[in-house]
Amino acid sequence: MFFKFNDYKMKVLITGGARGIGKASISLMLESKLISEIYFTCRCPEKGREALNEFSSKNSEKKLEFFLLDVLEENSMKKFSEEILKRKLVFDVVVQNAGVDFHDKSAENWRKIIQTNFVFPYELSKIMIDQNLVREGGRIVFISSRLGVLSSIQDNKQAKLALSCYKSREFTEEDFLKIFGDYQKDALDLSKLWGDDYYGQSKMFLTIGANVLAKKYQNFEFLAIHPGFVLTDMTKDLGAELPPSEAASNVLFSIFEKIDPETNGEFFRDRKITSILN
């Protein structure tokens, strides 16, 4: 059952909204009577304006706007949050959708994957809550993956054991970031202990991060979802067949699905709570 917001109209922010799952999700948001304002980010001004014009042509009733945000630029996140703060925007839902993957397992691509898929959405979420840019009781959705499981770590048994307890009340953000810090220290020779599934590892940290933040910020809602193996620019050579429009329906599910303290911070796949401990 979807959570019923009655007559309340939501402000939604989605990162990476100019293409793929993000763009398809906005198209569905335009049809929702429960959403009145939609904001999205894009790192390319031309693509952002093009997407905005396309969305605006479909719906003239909702407020639509895009912000420039490059997750690989050190000052971009700071400028973005400052702009939101300056304009006194407060969001009801934030969908952390931006993500990347690369076939080339170079050190530089590892940095881009881990920064885009985990560090950026995790840190931006904390900044936005700490600066009151998400309303109390609001929701943050992490677009994760079915590949973000503990088995993405190959031989680091100590890290696997520690992370397997991530749902425990005793497992804190300090514990989590200590493990991630060790992971970063091993970056120059990850294959020895962690393996080279950089994408899976980044999404594993993101999924666990949702649970960690749910314990840290108990007046907010968090969940991570696997939207499906979606046919996008990133997956077109990997056998993906699910159209972005179908994945977008799962994103809308994650916006409206009712969650309670017991399910806050969980990972959803096929709209059901799913374990990553395999």
Description:
With 278 residues, this protein is α/β, with parallel strands linked by helices. It has 9 helices and 8 strands. It has helices spanning 20-29, 45-58, 76-86, 107-130, 157-163, 173-185, 190-193, 198-216, 244-256; strands at residues 10-14, 35-42, 63-68, 91-96, 134-143, 221-226, 267-269, 272-273. It has an 8-stranded mixed sheet, with helices on both faces. Helix 9 links the parallel strand 6 and strand 7 (267-269). Helix 1 (20-29) crosses helix 9 and helix 4 (107-130) packs parallel to helix 8 (198-216). The longest helix is centred in the middle third of the chain and has 24 residues, at 107-130. The protein is globular and about 55 Å long.
Overview in brief:
The chain has 278 residues and is of the alpha/beta class.
Helix-strand layout with pairing:
Elements: E1 10-14, H1 20-29, E2 35-42, H2 45-58, E3 63-68, H3 76-86, E4 91-96, H4 107-130, E5 134-143, H5 157-163, H6 173-185, H7 190-193, H8 198-216, E6 221-226, H9 244-256, E7 267-269, E8 272-273
Helix content: 40-55%
Q: What is the residue-averaged pLDDT?
A: 89
Q: What is the radius of gyration?
A: 18 Å
Q: Tally the helices: what do you get?
A: 9
Structural class: alpha/beta
Low-confidence stretches: none
- Report the order of strands and helices: EHEHEHEHEHHHHEHEE
The main pleated sheet reads as: 8 strands, mixed
Shape: globular
Going across the major beta sheet, what is the strand order?
Answer: 3-2-1-4-5-6-7-8
How many beta-strand runs? 8
